[in-house]
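Section: Multi-chain targets

For targets with more than one molecule, the full set of components is provided together so that the structure can be written out for the assembly as a whole rather than chain by chain. Components appear in the order listed by the source. The example entry contains two components.
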Amino acid sequence: MGAAVFFGCAGIAFGPALALVLLTVAAEPLRVIVLVAGAFFWLVSLLLASLIWFVSVHLSDREDAKLQYGLLVFGAAVSVLLQEAFRFAYFKLLKKADEGLATISEDGRSPISLRQMAYVSGLSFGIISGVFSVINILADSIGPGIVGIHGDSPYYFITSAFLTMALVLLHTFWGVIFFDACEKRRYWCLGLVVASHLLTSGLVSL
Amino acid sequence: MITFMNNSDSEEEPCNERTSLMSAESPPVPSYQDGLQASQAGEVQAHRKRRTGSSRSPNNIADGDMSDSGVPVRESALENEEEELTLKYGAKHVIMLFVPVTLCMIVVVATIKSVRFYTEKNGQLIYTPFSEDTPSVGQRLLNSVLNTIIMISVIVVMTVFLVLLYKYRCYKFIHGWLILSSLMLLFLFTYIYLGEVLKTYNVAMDYPTLFLIIWNFGAVGMICIHWKGPLQLQQAYLIMISALMALVFIKYLPEWSAWVILGAISIYDLMAVLCPKGPLRMLVETAQERNEPIFPALIYSSAMMWTVGMAKPDTAAGGPSQQTWDAAEDGRENHRSPSHADSQMLETRSPAPTRPITSFEELEEEERGVKLGLGDFIFYSVLVGKAAATASGDWNTTLACFVAILIGLCLTLLLLAVFKKALPALPISITFGLVFYFSTDNLVRPFMDTLASHQLYI
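Its structure, encoded as tokens over all components, is:
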């Protein structure tokens, strides 16, 4: 615990993402806007998913631990599906924006290509999802304490950090594949992205 | 895209919060003023036509933002050019505002999370006389609504007063007011802030050193804000005083009142700027008629700022641009440098190194940047700071509010590009912020906490 753990885990979790942002996104205003808007879309999807989970928890028996865990997994699955749905919505929005930018610009080409937007949107989903998953854990790691004193794994922080890093990168890849699949109308690719997201979520829950 | 300002005394005054509130009021109406824009856009067109196409294209290529291949010098495409202008600088301007707003919020959140002074309840302002320590929920709600009504009426009265002063050309009074406000903010509040920070980190400091630091900080601040100074220093000072003001609000506004006040202020902002008889709209229109900027000292400007005693465009531009001249000489980069003056200079400089004078003028006319009232900074920071202070130690809520506010700002700027008139910057951002705060705090937090405890990732 303490600063070493905090900086180490933060570096592990967000190192690649930060590097990607600094090198590719930070210089271009349009990409930064796409990044922030992507984060917004992910947040809205999370909001809806939590609403569904919250309602289901309140309607169910609070004492039953197994049921609660089941509801949690259900909530996670719903969240994954909603995230993908909002990724699709974001794709539609970006496509329209792309066309708008192309018409307004001088030479008929939009200043940012759909591929770049796919990458930035994937990155944005990844970053905000990673941040939401791990920031409270990181904040706790600064303070005093011993990890796993009640018998849980003492490697909680570092595994969380690695999982977050994986999630960030996965979201980036999913973003690119998803947008490409939507563009080329390869629906099996879409299904692949959704399935792999569900699989990832499910695997982690084991 | 030229945005405007609304005058606002976001500083403190001997009367304390009263004026600051009021001022905090005016600026919220970040008027992105466009009356001037039309005339200026016209001038730009004229200038662009005079320039040759060749000098324009490298310009555009250097501008990494929008890769237009070149501006055709078309007489008939005035409107397209105008549209292209607004869009060409649209994304850049959004970022020009994202950065200071983010910095202000970071300062406020960092202070709230570390210095406990600003989260302790030590009384309330006289503008919110009703206490919230009541036993019943209904009573508490009623008290907060009453507090809000009082606060908003104070704000309305002060705004109307300011508009009247401006209308009847009592400039000296207004300037004196502003100077007193910023004096109090820069010296007294900074002193308190520094004291609390030193207490938190248990650092000892003797009075002479303290005096020296505060004196220098305050004096340079007064000069930068009210007179001339390097653009970035001016921006930094404006961000700092907005953060200080926001911290005062966060400390002294009771819980529920703060949220209701935020909501009410955005509604007021909406009405004051858009209604025909709204005080802020009248202020903006009066300024337009007289063709003068409204107290730039209280508006955050992302490009070269005209000072209060507005110097002639050339000399004013001369100041900040001199320092960027050498930067431009050294290297041309396509990156957006932190100083917007820099990037602007780089753009126009590289293609036309032999015509500095023209560049100056072109620069002034093209890139005035975006202006946002300080009150907007203050209320955005109040929202995010309150989220950081009261959301049960949760960082997710703070981040969600932060993203919501940025998106609101983005949308507002988009609307600005579409409608081309003064627009309030508070409503959309604050609405998103409030929605996200309450929903994240109550719905998302338990969900994410439960997920984290089982180490589930979604």
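Strands of chain B lie at 299-301, 371-373.
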